[in-house]
Design brief:
Elements (H helix, E strand, L loop, with lengths): L7 H7 L3 H9 L41 H14 L2 H8 L6 H17 L4 H22 L3 H22 L1
Helix pairs in contact: 1-2, 1-3, 5-6
């Protein structure tokens, strides 16, 4: 078994060579031929690594000292893709605009009238639409800092005008 966190199969998986990734851990090559050569590295547990070596190399991708940078890059790439934020962004569609929201609500109302949709679904959708519209309204309002700066500008303009009149 490879070192804990070995990413040779993960790297191959991410690169699209799924067959080789899975086959490598079964002890056969991508064609399904039995492979007798094994990586010459010793694992932390003291056992010989059972993964087939890279072509023309004595080590598997996980244990080859020359692929250390490649493993670090693959681990970093894999770690970034696992971020909760990244996964959520992939799942969430872009927020609909007001016309799309109105169309969805109109469609739901038609379905309620036709008897194909429960009123509770429309109520839940209406709440969601209200939340989206309110969030957009709040986001469109100027920040407290921007308002404070504008007040300071107006005070300065009033003071200048007062000096000119006096």
């Amino acid at each position: 078994m490879c070192l804990p966190g070995c990413i040779d199969w993960l790297y191959l998986w991410q690169c699209g060579d799924v067959g080789l990734a899975i086959a490598g851990h079964r002890g056969s090559n991508a064609r399904g031929d039995q492979v007798t050569a094994r990586c010459t590295a010793i694992t932390k547990s003291g056992h010989a690594c059972r993964v087939p070596p890279q072509n023309g190399r004595p080590f598997c991708l996980c244990h080859d000292p020359e692929t250390q940078q490649l493993r670090k890059e693959a681990a970093k790439k894999g770690g970034l893709g696992r971020s909760t934020v990244v996964r959520a962004q992939k799942l969430l569609p872009p927020a609909p605009n007001e016309d799309e929201l109105a169309a969805v609500m109109a469609d739901l109302l038609r379905k309620v009238i036709a008897g194909t949709t429960d009123v509770k679904i429309v109520q839940a959708a209406a709440i969601a639409v209200r939340v989206i519209i309110e969030a957009r309204r709040v986001a469109a309002q100027p920040s407290v800092e921007a308002l404070s700066e504008r007040i300071d500008e107006l005070r300065t303009a009033i003071d200048r005008r007062a000096e000119l009149v006096a």
